[in-house]
């Protein structure tokens, strides 16, 4: 009952405003609504909270956007964090060590060592993904169920590999955050101490940023200031009726 009310209120607001299906920023801190004859489509017919997929290439600013969304009261489920928990489980570590010998030491994953082997070769990365991703998905489903029980009407699913996993079909809306490659590289080098080559190796294993943008319902350009980013996040939430 409550859920259909949310769905209707989203539709009403967007019908009334005849606003954007897509929000883009052509320059930092400037948000432009592109008109679309159709109201924003809320796709899911399934019960449970509506899902806002949050994705983007390495270093685009997903975690930063996720923090803003949390700050606005939304429940954010973080696939990277779940992957980290999964890769602490003995069962997963045994599978990883068997597939990538030498990457687990004293029961702890050597993340740089695994990265060096996995991101160097698509077949190896596929093998790692096959171990980790089903477990991450199961945990995300469990978290979503918990959020539903707590009364959440929307959940944000922060999933770096949303398009790579074909998960967009299960989302009610997809928000892609993006920034120019060189800026993403510089930000990740600064944040994580990775080399330029390490960042580029990961980027090369992801769906190209241009393809992500093309598939998005909302594109947030994070090539500028944090204030500009925040303004775009608020515009997207407004268009979804969550502002
Ligand atoms: C290889 C691992 C150990 C490296 O750990 P590390 O701490 O260096 O990176 P972290 O997990 O924080 O990921 C940082 C970013 O790297 C990129 N990345 C991570 N895994 C992948 C992947 N399988 N394919 C492409 N890009 C990836 C994403 O942009 C991600 O946001 C780790 O990333 C991992 O276990 N990856 C497999 C699980 C996975 O796909 N996680 C991402 C989404 S669920
Ligand atoms: N607009 C901005 N201005 C300055 N720094 C920023 C901005 N947006 C994000 N950053 C910084 O850039 C780095 C990358 O951002 P963030 O961690 O949010 O990206 P991500 O997409 O989650 O990365 P990953 O794919 O590695 O998980 C962080 O250190 C973050 O604080």
UniProtKB/TrEMBL annotation:
EC numbers: 2.7.1.24
GO MF assignments: kinase activity
First and last residue of the signal peptide: none
Broad enzyme group: transferase
Catalytic reaction list: 3'-dephospho-CoA + ATP = ADP + CoA + H(+)
Subcellular localization(s) per the UniProt record: Cytoplasm
Domain of life the protein comes from: Bacteria
Keywords: ATP-binding, Coenzyme A biosynthesis, Cytoplasm, Kinase, Nucleotide-binding, Transferase
Keyword Cytoplasm: yes
Pfam families: CoaE (PF01121)
Record pathway: Cofactor biosynthesis; coenzyme A biosynthesis; CoA from (R)-pantothenate: step 5/5
Predominant subcellular localization, coarse grouping: cytoplasm
Binding residues annotated for ATP, in chain numbering: 59-64
Membrane-spanning residues: none
Family: Belongs to the CoaE family.
NCBIfam families in UniProt: dephospho-CoA kinase
Function per UniProt: Catalyzes the phosphorylation of the 3'-hydroxyl group of dephosphocoenzyme A to form coenzyme A.
The protein's name in its UniProt record: Dephospho-CoA kinase
Organism this protein belongs to: Deinococcus aerolatus
Gene: coaE
